[in-house]
Amino acid sequence: MGWAIALHGGAGDIPLSLPPSSSQSQHPALDVVELVVRELENIPHFNAGKGSVLTTQGTVEMEACIIDGTKRCGAVSGLTTVVNPISLARLVMEKTPHIYLAFDGAEAFAREQGVETVDSSHFITPENVERLKQAKEANRVQIDYTQPLHKDEKKETPEADGDSKLG
Amino acid sequence: TVGCVAVDSLGNLASATSTGGLVNKMVGRIGDTPIIGAGTYANSLCAVSATGKGEAIIRGTVARDVAAVMEFKYVSLKEAAAYVVEEGTPKGNVGLVAVSATGEVTMPFNTNGMFRACATEDGYSEIGIW
């Protein structure tokens, strides 16, 4: 028998029609997508926020973007200390006349807006240090869930157009 | 990469995507996530959040293409997203989640797996990896 997993949220006489207040929190779609992505950024197993994969220099450079159906949007890149990049992207959308801030400018805007920032080491996990080591050994740039090279697999020479075939 | 798309009971659409990028990427490399129309897009028809190999998603303007195929070919979100993922991008590089203003949900991918989950007001929900 292979792996199996099951989970429950409690048993009992749960009313069929949960009060609307608990099933619908009345948040607009923009709040919902921001709140969900914030949760995922805080889970180290996902490649965003804490648990972001590492650059070739072993550093973290995070990016995020938010947009709504009226095409109001905000984007940030090159963040190294902001705990929730998606919330900074939303501040770019709501507090600036621009769409996209990057690197030093985005970091300065984060401090100006008072969003939570921490030392870059907060985002680095042992798993991602190992992933970077594997990628360097294989000489490739790869998506976070790429399997390590088997011992008989040859090293990869990155294609000129930047597209690693094993990426 | 993580992303979320939502349509609320008033029909408002939104999309959000966040990422650390690619393992072993060059310092200063920008991927698809913050590029409007590549990894993240929304308009009055749908909201899209993509994941995968950023360079392929940027070249394919994936998120905008889903909305454009809906808009100009008058097809459903599911058909538009399937077309873009199967025909418009290289195999093994792209996955996306999307919702339409009418509450349709689709989560196609051409990689061997994509962490995904969805739920709709009429009670449908799905969680998947492969």
What does this entry show, briefly?
Chain A has five helices and three strands; from the N terminus they run ααββαβαα. Chain A has helices at 20-23, 29-41, 85-95, 103-113, 126-137, and strands at residues 62-68, 73-79, 100-102.
Largest sheet of chain A: 3 strands, mixed
Principal-axis shape of chain A = globular
Instruction: Please trace the helix and strand order of chain B, writing H or E for each element.
Output: EEEEHHHEEEE
Mean pLDDT of chain A: 83
Going across the major beta sheet of chain B, what is the strand order? 3-4-5-6
Distance between the termini of chain A: 33 Å
What is the CA-atom radius of gyration of chain B, in angstroms?
Answer: 14 Å
List the helices and strands and how they pair.
The complex is a heterodimer of chains A (167) and B (130).
Chain A: H1 20-23, H2 29-41, E1 62-68, E2 73-79, H3 85-95, E3 100-102, H4 103-113, H5 126-137
Helix pairs in contact in A: 2-3
Chain B: E1 2-7, E2 13-19, E3 40-42, E4 46-52, H1 54-59, H2 62-73, H3 77-87, E5 94-100, E6 105-106, E7 116-119, E8 125-128
Antiparallel strand pairs in B: 1-2, 3-4, 4-5, 5-6, 7-8
Helix pairs in contact in B: 2-3
Describe the protein.
- The complex is a heterodimer of chains A (167) and B (130).
- Chain A is α+β, with helices and mostly antiparallel strands.
- In chain A, 31% of the residues lie in helices and 10% in strands.
- Chain A has helices at residues 20-23, 29-41, 85-95, 103-113, 126-137, and strands at 62-68, 73-79, 100-102.
- Chain A has a three-stranded mixed beta sheet.
- In chain A, helix 2 packs antiparallel against helix 3.
- Chain A starts with 19 loop residues before the first helix and ends in a 30-residue tail after the last helix.
- In chain A, 38% of the residues are buried.
- Chain B has 130 residues and is of the alpha+beta class.
- In chain B, strand 5 and strand 6 (105-106) form a beta hairpin.
- In chain B, helix 2 (62-73) crosses helix 3 (77-87).
- The radius of gyration of chain B is 14 Å and the shape is globular.
- The model of chain B has no long low-confidence stretch (mean pLDDT 96).
